[in-house]
Amino acid sequence: MTTFSDSAVTAFLLITSLDPMLASIVVRSLAVSTSACLIACSAGLLLGGWLGVARFRGRAGVLALLNTALALPSVVVGLVVYLLLSRSGPLGFLGWLFSFKAMVLAQAVLVLPVVTALVRQTIEDADRGHGEQFQSLGARRFMRSLILLWDERYALLTVLIAAFGRAISEVGAVMVVGGNIDGFTRVMTTSIALETSKGDLALALALGLLLLGLVLLLNGLIVLVRYWREQLDDPLPEAASVQAPAPVPGAAARMARP
Q: What is the largest CA-CA distance in the chain?
């Protein structure tokens, strides 16, 4: 218990004092995950939107592969990217192995199926609801998917936030392709694993607290986006109808006299 309390106090001091090493690890993690999400979300939005409205032979098989990719272990993704970027691999000429770019590529490959699958389901549900209207106006599939993407933009914000949370909390793929090199490819998740094995529990706990804080912030953003969307979807309250004043009984009686 003393070790835990001492580590917690030291971790709190590292966070509040803005320790340079701690700050560099956090900034690098945010940079890697943000870059990966920009790449994966750009491709996933277009691909998921098209799959949501497209109907072709073999679509069920494509969706089955896409859903299977959702459960890909991160270490398997890291291994595949490692083989692609190794000197004997097809992308070895790039020289990206054990670099920032390799970690971005690995996280992008890991996040892409998540974004594509969630966007596809959202757009397909929206297309069932009012896609026929756009089709009757002459909008082709790709244009219809773009319109539905814009129409469901508030729901898709939740998908993008969840994708960033998936990327920032990933450890296996970046460990394999990045090498966890101090000052170059060390991010929060890989640093937690390394510092725990070294016995530096204070730094590991500080990074863990910051990672939990980021995840909590992302969940809070998801709740706010959902609440904002519900407020936008609620119809405006109808104006109260103005009723004519009831006639005064005495005046009505006098008007009724011959």
A: 111
Report whether 131 contacts 144 (CB < 8 A).
yes
Are 185 and 98 contacting, i.e. CB atoms less than 8 angstroms apart?
A: yes
CA distances from 195 to 8, 132, 185, 216, 248 (A): 14, 56, 15, 23, 86
Distance between CA atoms of residues 106 and 14, nearest Å = 30
- On the 0-12 / 13-18 / 19+ scale of CB atoms within 10 A, 248 is exposed
Does the pLDDT value for residue 54 go beyond 60?
A: yes
Can you tell me the distance from the alpha carbon of 121 to that of 63, in angstroms, rounded to the nearest whole number?
10
Residue with structure tokens 């998740």?
A: 189
Q: How long is the chain?
A: 258
Tens-digit pLDDT profile for residues 220-236 = 888 887 788 777 766 55
- Residue ranges of domains in the chain, CATH in brackets: 2-256 (1.10.3720.10)
- Six token digits for residue 228: 């904002």
State the Cα angle at 186 between 181 and 191, rounded to 5°. Answer: 115
Q: Which of 23, 155, 179, 216 is nearest to 103 (CA)?
A: 179
Supply the pTM of this predicted model: 0.81
